Backbone:
């Protein structure tokens, strides 16, 4: 019986430690002004509440992503999400005055945590924007952060051996996409620059493994949609700077 209670206590302490290591977030919804000549803007993201360097880094990165997606002018003085919403709205109104039949613009951004352990937290952003033309543009972005250092990580900073990882990823990519290992990487219709495989712009930690996603136009046509590759941690931990416990 004593062993039972000891085991129960150990599990309780472990669960408490895991809970304490998690960051605290709350949902945030931002919407553009509603009027006949206003674009539709719908943003659903999160904000980190802890007064820590990592929370500041996350909130800053999310703000910069929103500004990047919504800003259509050359104004470099846009510093907040609200200013970015206004910039998107003003740009549409300006176009509307010149082209009365301009189709309604729209923008959607959704973001949430998809992975967190004691070292890493990853936020996934899905965005869609339409500003005229044949179709809109959808994309997925992964934001990876080092919780201990309180900083956002560039892709190359995820790895101890980025060259080794890239070679491994290419082998797995060729298998998934049925590209012969000895053939040109673009032999089946892909559009890698210089006919050489390269890692995508967006790489993120997930519960299933490290996910690589090539957004539309990155290495294939719009019609092909995004191209995804998931690599299990038990196969790639040797390349990662921050290992994932299995």
Residues:
């Amino acid at each position: 019986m004593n062993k039972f209670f000891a085991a129960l206590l150990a599990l309780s302490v472990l669960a408490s430690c895991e809970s304490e290591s998690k960051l605290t977030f709350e949902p945030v919804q931002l919407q553009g002004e509603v009027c006949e000549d206003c674009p539709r803007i719908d943003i659903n993201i999160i904000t980190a509440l802890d007064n820590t360097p990592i929370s500041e880094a996350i909130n800053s990165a999310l703000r910069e992503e929103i500004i990047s997606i919504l800003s259509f002018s050359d104004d470099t003085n846009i510093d907040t999400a609200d200013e970015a919403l206004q910039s998107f709205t003003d740009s549409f109104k300006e176009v509307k005055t010149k082209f009365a039949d301009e189709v309604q613009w729209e923008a959607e951004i959704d973001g949430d945590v998809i992975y967190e352990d004691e070292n890493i937290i990853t936020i996934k952003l899905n965005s869609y924007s339409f500003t005229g033309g044949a179709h809109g543009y959808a994309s997925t972005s992964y934001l990876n952060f080092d919780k201990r250092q309180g900083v956002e990580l560039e892709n190359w900073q995820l790895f101890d051996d980025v060259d080794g990882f890239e070679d491994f990823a290419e082998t797995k990519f060729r298998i998934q996409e049925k590209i012969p290992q000895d053939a040109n990487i673009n032999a089946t219709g892909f559009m890698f620059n210089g006919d050489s495989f390269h890692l995508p712009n967006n790489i993120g930690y997930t519960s299933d493994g490290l996910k690589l996603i090539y957004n539309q136009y990155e290495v294939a046509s719009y019609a092909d949609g995004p191209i995804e590759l998931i690599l299990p941690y038990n196969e790639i931990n040797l390349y990662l700077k921050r290992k994932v416990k299995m």
The chain has five helices and nine strands. Residues 3-19 have pLDDT under 50 and may be disordered.
